User: What shape does this take?
Amino acid sequence: MNCPDQPLTRFAGAKTSERVDVSEPASISAGIAARYATAIFELAKEDKELKALESDLGALEGALNDSDGFRALISSPIYTRDQQGDAIAALAKKMQLSPIVANTLSLMATKRRLFVLPQLVAGLRDLIAEENGEVTADVSAATALTKAQQDKLAKTLKASFGKDVKINMAVDESLIGGLIVKVGSKLIDTSIKSKLSNLQSSMKEVG
Assistant: This one.
């Protein structure tokens, strides 16, 4: 996906007036995200727009993963409500987001709630997966898995969980090798980084 930083450039020198502390305890953030996710999902389902919603989520995930500017926009208190709103409107147009998602993001900007966007996206992924009789596996690896590798992993996970598994892929170069797979509350960590960390801990105990 193309990095959506271009519509953010005019906000690079944003004035710091109307600074607002957008930080919230994790439990409160999760609750806010869950309410927005439920509302968006129900509207998209009613309008038979779940496929469009999935496409929107892919675009937003790409922006969250690839764009420092986008992450700063949704989390930094230096941006005013109007600045967030204008930037989000421009980005929604650039990413061709559906009206349901674009309008919700604008509302979130008005209410200073954009900082919960990562949890919102994850929540929507879970709701869509449940609707399709699937579970979502969040997979992190040092390099992106090929389609064949993802299909093989999904097949292996299906044998364990008894449901079709949709892979949500992320790249974390610090892992060096191996995988971290999270399905619901279950975490499977086969990364070399984790193994090295465990080895270091064992050596300290011996010493």
